[in-house]
Amino acid sequence: MFPPSWKAGTWDRKAAQPSLTFLFGDYNPGGKLPITVPRSAGQLPDYYYQKPSAKREYLGSTVQPLFPFGWGLSYSTFKYGNLHATPDSIRNQGQARISVDVTNSGAVRGDEVVQLYIRDEVSSVTRPIKELRGFRRIALAAGETKQLSSR
After folding, report:
1. Close Cβ partners of 35 (under 8 Å, ≥ 6 residues apart)
2. Considering only CA atoms, which of 38, 48, 22 is closest in space to residue 115?
3. Alpha-carbon distance 11 to 50, whole Å?
4. What is the pLDDT along the chain (151 residues), one digit of tens a residue?
5. How far apart are CA 31 and CA 113, in angstroms?
6. Residue 118: beta bridge partners?
7. Which residues are CB-neighbours of 49 under 8 A, at least 6 positions away?
């Protein structure tokens, strides 16, 4: 559970430094889960791109996973705003341009993994509720804002 540098009789200040900077917030890791963690074995298989009819809720339970695909924590907080999609609708084989402003509203520098999900609500075959179409990792200083765009 603890790094080898923390075990009794082997305390080494230099070896423990990376662990301590992480624990006390001097280093701010950023990342998102690449899997879905179910609440119970009854939810298996559980993955983020479920079809609309694939989830059944049992009495006294929920269909929500313990930790969904793409979930993550940081010592900083991020706000999303100014979301734009052009054009408003697209035809078959069409493309849309999506842009969003991401702001580090926390007090420390942080990395955020911005994720773009889509859903085809009108299709000739059943499609997943959400599909990951793109992601980008960005580093932002405290108070900094970046505009991201994708096609």
Report:
1. 47, 69
2. 48
3. 47
4. 455 555 555 556 666 677 777 777 677 877 788 888 888 777 777 766 677 666 666 666 777 888 888 888 888 999 999 999 999 888 778 888 999 999 999 998 999 999 998 888 787 888 888 888 889 999 999 999 999 998 8
5. 7
6. 131
7. 128, 129, 130, 131, 132
